[in-house]
């Protein structure tokens, strides 16, 4: 159902929400009991420490996650108690705009009072208290981030600088449009509050999540977390500054003012950590704003908001908590050693010490003067979510299970030939041998006529090597279309983004593929650089030529620290096989000796038409093969004529011409008969290749071509060739295009 419409929300409320309410029986009952207790209480009852503490700490309306800011002092503070009692007993204005102003005043007054007394702001608890006092105007969505997520999912416009009270009003107004005005009963108010949560689950997908933490696989987790001054408090100040949206350069200026001793590179690195690693900021149309997690951190002002993300997304945090949960205390040096054993690439204590510092900042551990580490109460609670000791990260764990056994050449040839594509066995054997000449340098260039299957051979070979069936995705093959504007390696390996004014890295599929090849060293990885010479190969491919020749690392960027987890250098994967396809014409660049010396070159020039029809029938059984055979004989004659001037064509042209003829006679038979369709196919797919200067061979070609087309009654193609021949005689050169 479409929740961006009134009808969609109404349908959800009528059809699915009742069943959800049945699952929330206890929540509904406790929620209703609390608001009824507040509603029926007089001034004396409202002033009691018991009810005041319940308003601040009871989770009948909503939990506050790991928010551990105690509010018992406010339950006994006379000024705070009197203010809350006054708000609770005030008759609210009937006018919606006046009512909103009053509620916003209440919220701001409570917020200011708490802000003056607390170093950390329990915004979640303030909103929960407001929901208990004003159940007709507030919901159990006590997080600004969740409120905004819900409103955006329903496509409700959010005015800038809207208070949490205003956000609740926007949501309740939309609910009222869908299910009708409230009845005034507390039960109805509670139902609407819970329905607001149900809407949040629908638009965010959180209702589909299973219980427990969703740990990412080791290979996809961040490998460590850089330390920074202030830790969570610094992150909160940055997110707060960006709350209403800021440009990246504004945020950099703000951070430099907050930390004047930091170099610009460190400023950008730490902002990248806050944005990407912690996931607190997002960039949209050049403006940085808080993510839902960022909004939640601002609501709670509690480090616990970040714990789940770091436990599940950063390597090693779960190991620290698990090991400490099994030991009352551990020495820092022992934890460092465990982490280095867990991830052997941590060869020093730098990353482990940073992770311990973050764990302390998050309130998960304590470290005494003797360097003994123990879990806090909060750390013990989180450790209970880790079911078993995390698996160490070793190459054999990262790679796929089982040892890979390469296929024989016979098996590869049989696999490729079974696909129906036309490749000579000798050519496949030549290609295979060239790819495996060296143990670390695997580089072959396939050159020649367009449409002869160069790219297809690279793909079919990779599929055969990994025994990938037709139609299945081969994760060990990557096709990279080369772009004419590549002047350096950034098109392949990405770059540090200078436009965003922050230290972010724009990665590429090729760089990710290199990482994958390094993580799975037993599996050959195949890259096809399609139309490799559209750009100058010695420009954009130079770092790779040197790396594969010298087995030296590839320099990715010039920063000392990783950027968005992208390291400064990357080892050359000895299991990487590179195939470049090239067409040698006036639109491409020639190869330098530097390139040719490092590659084996195979030429695709001859088109094996004798085997073509069998191949076409196997690949396109749905086509009328009799018609295809008749058309093919004509196309073959034209191919042989154009072969005299090296303007013949490959399998792709024949494929598309035959498929066009089949479709035209089927779908447009009232307008195009078989001969008309053939005439059109020749004009559209074959004649555009005809070009050249006035030579005896070219004149003979035109004579033969015109005679052939005339005999076949392909009138349109004949007329075009006659006109091109006249141009050839008059100007000394001709081409299809006028």
Total domains: 4
Would you report the number of β strands?
16
Using only C-alpha atoms, the radius of gyration works out to: 35 Å
**Low-confidence sequence ranges:** 207-211, 395-402
The global form is elongated
Overall SS class: alpha/beta
Placed side by side, the strands forming the largest sheet appear as 7-10-13-6-14
In helices, the fraction of residues equals 40-55%
Our estimate of the beta-strand percent is 5-15%
The main pleated sheet reads as: 5 strands, parallel
Mean pLDDT value: 86
Distance between the termini: 55 Å
Helix segment tally: 36
Oligomeric status: single chain
What can be said about this structure in brief?
By secondary structure, this protein is an alpha/beta fold. Helices cover 53% and strands 8% of the residues.
Architecture overview:
The protein has 36 helices and 16 strands. It is 53% helix and 8% strand. The protein is an alpha/beta fold and 738 residues long. A hairpin with a 2-residue loop joins strand 1 and strand 2. The protein has 4 domains: 203 residues, no CATH class; 177 residues, Arc Repressor Mutant, subunit A (Orthogonal Bundle), CATH 1.10.10; 196 residues, Rossmann fold (3-Layer(aba) Sandwich), CATH 3.40.50; 123 residues, no CATH class. Helix 10 crosses helix 12, helix 10 runs antiparallel to helix 16 and helix 32 packs parallel to helix 34. About 2% of the residues have low confidence.
